[in-house]
Amino acid sequence: MVAGNGLFYPIIGFASFLVLIYWSFGDLWVNYRNGPELSFVQRNGTHFMVDGRVFYVNGWNSYWLMDHAVDHYTRPRVREMLRAGAKMGLTVCRTWAFNDGAYNALQISPGRYDERVFRALDHVIAEARKHGIRLLLSLVNNLLPYGGKTQYVKWAWEEGVGLSSSNDSFFYDPSIRNYFKNHVKALLTRRNTITGIQYRDDPTIFAWELINEPRCISDPSGNTLQDWIEEMSVFVKSIDKKHLLTIGLEGFYGPKSPKRLTVNPGEWAANLGSDFIRNSKISTIDFATVHIYPDQWFPEQELDEKLKYVSKWMVSHIEDGDKELRKPIMFTEFGLSNLSKGFQPSQRERFYKIAYDVIYESAQKNDSGAGSFVWQFLVGGMEEYNDDYGIVPWESPSMYRLITQHSCRLAISQGVLPSQKEHLKELCLQRR
Q1: Where are the alpha helices (DSSP H) in 103-222?
Q2: Average pLDDT, stretch 155-177?
Q3: What proportions of the chain, in percent to the nearest 5, are helix, strand and coil?
Q4: pTM of the prediction?
Q5: Angle CA(130)–CA(132)–CA(134) in degrees, nearest 5?
Q6: 349 noted as active-site residue
Q7: Active-site residue identified among 333, 383, 422, 426
Q8: Phi, psi (5° rounding) for residue 348?
């Protein structure tokens, strides 16, 4: 009878379509529902908290996740990286939630998005959730790669509304500020096509980062950048009150800070338009960030001198978190280039160990050092994405052991969270 009414083939066709969709995405849907339960990370003074327990971060950077999730032939690298991170006991991955006007651009032009790329970001978030990894998502780049503030200025200039062709007009041009606010709103209110959850309601997201490594050299007083941070942080919080928010600073002390002379890596660092203390004190900023690149700052120094400075740099900022800011301090990038003077892989391990030890000692003393993120981790076959800092950690047994040992001692310091309990128990027993 159905065939006689001409409905048989349409029904069969629709059923086949549903089967195809399930084969393509069903595994992800099922695994998402069966993944570990995640709660929102909160802040209590100088500590992060999850389910009433202190939460320390052993994290890493893989900025490339969204870009690789766009194409089917590179998408498996996303799962491979997140699965490996979970296996090492890592808890948070920092990655880009922006690609402005470049290849595989998320934002093609102001307010116009490539849905294909947005679905790639959906995939990254869903995969992270499945593996119990949280994400620190950065919203724009101060630097040129992936568009950054330069692309925003170019858009305004091309549309005839830009006040200046200077890259720093990103921070003070009203039209560009509106471009960025529209982008923020589009991201935070995005409903994930895989999970059905709006980004602002998804605890998989650890926090938002306003901008990667902001500098406004045209105004070394810092007033321009300070105004921008205040306005944008209030705007983010008006849309999303559930997630933590940070700036994305490198940690340099500004022109009025006494530490500009005693702790900054050079006089130049106080004249970049940023100020670690002043910027991070803003009430709508939940935690402060610091980057660590001794090989860039002191290219001629020997390794021992660089490592001594690294310890001083980290301890200084943790003291700031405890005494000045009363907020957690996160070292969201640290790395050593393989182009450094006399580089050997063992030197990178020594550097990582210094950073990890400072964080662990801070945790033992209940201080504000809340975590660190290696720059950067890759999977095999990604040589073109390596900026001479990247490593595939499981290719070096000693490096892999160092990373997992740090995961275990942080887990012991905080008490293992339920979502990690069985996995970390197995991992840490192996380390003994």
Answers
A1: 115-130, 148-158, 169-172, 174-188
A2: 95
A3: 50, 15, 35
A4: 0.91
A5: 110
A6: no
A7: 333
A8: -65, -40
